[in-house]
Predict the structure of 2-oxoadipate dioxygenase/decarboxylase.
Amino acid sequence: MSTISQWRLRAAFAERLSRMYGQEVPAYTTLVDVSREVNEDVLRERGADAERLGSIGRVTAERHGAIRVGTPTELEQVARVFGALGMRPVGFYDLREAAASAVPVVSTAFRPVDGEELARNPFRVFTSMLTPADPRFFDADLRTRLEAFLTTRELFPPELLALADRAEADRELPANDAERFLQLAVGAFELSSEPVDKAWYGTLERISAVAADIGGVRSTHVNHLTPRVLDIDELYRRMTERGIEMIDTIQGPPAWKGPDVLLRQTSFRALAEPRSMRLADGSVERGALRVRFGEVEARGIALTRQGRALYDQLLGRVDEQAAGRPAEARGDIARTVWERHIPGSEEELDAAGLAYFTYRLVDDRPRDGSGPPATVGELVRQGWVRAEPVVYEDFLPRSAAGIFQSNLSGEGTRDNDQEGTAYDAARLSGAIGREVLDPFALYAAQRDASLAAVGERLGLTSL
Ligand code: OOG
Ligand code: NI
């Protein structure tokens, strides 16, 4: 019997999730359509240059999802479902710290890690876990009630987890098991029609709309599914022209004339979705919740630790200069700061050690009798090797917090006199039972592998 390989499972899952989400949230389909139009236009205008950070095939199919779970056990289970699809936890994001007000979660992103797998299908899921033990958000009584509620629910049926474990171990599934796995996996992220306990939801909502979305219901669901676009400023204009209400800003680096770096994101505002509510007397009424939104993103070159530190420092500088000025001024302020401090070309970013590149031997370099120089910089300058930018595959905590915030109905509360519970990548790794990988190490490994290959071909050991 035929088998379905891991990456085909991943691609099929992403596609089915997209179809399901399009039915649940029709504005998402508009976003995907407009993204496709923009991408086609950019490809027509810029030709091969438009594909410098990924083939148009990859970019068109590319999505990231966002989901939210309540406990370490649920996170461990979702890690098995994504493990089946060849996705590993990468990066630690503490949204409790990054936001101006309350988002009581810590997060990671599940994604493929090696270059070939990313090129086949880069599907990733930003995954957040609620932190009921954090006293800044939940007092002892609410924490107890919340944890008790969460332990009684089952997000992932045992049959799904068993199939997931097999797919992860074998890196494939027989076709009929693959079909069953996909049905159960997509079903686990569908919006439930079960009535929401109105009083309980409201109690959590006073702390944080995200806490209510996670801990106020008995199942999980996709929060958003994000297509990738090659010109996010143009997309923003076209969505606005269509009368779709977008959040105020594009998060991340400003629009500028230099290379795209890291990640720029924006979204349309969360829509009111009909949900039935159960009242204290047991009766059910029609209600609506506004939690799911439509996000879109543009991806740029991955920055090194040093490049990232510069990015964070510049964000701080923009904040200072933008304080007290009208919100519209921020874009121009940011552009000016950028142009002063970030090199305006790939070559300069590389030479300054600010961004990641891989290197490839130039086969048709004219021979001039000279031997290869011993440094990467000189090899590039003298035309022996060509540098290719590495695309950023991860997320930005500040943008994530901004995206969470701009779509929340209420501000929520955080008691800043309390000491927060410590959480870091190591503790999250313990909770999931798998190592949360360091994104910088993954990019560096890609670069180093390419250098080793070049070094071997040229007989250089120093690279
Ligand atoms: C996740 C928000 C963060 C991103 O792309 O930065 C995010 C959520 O709303 O659950 O998805
Ligand atoms: Ni997102």
Remarks:
- Residues 303-354 form one domain.
- The longest helix spans residues 26-46.
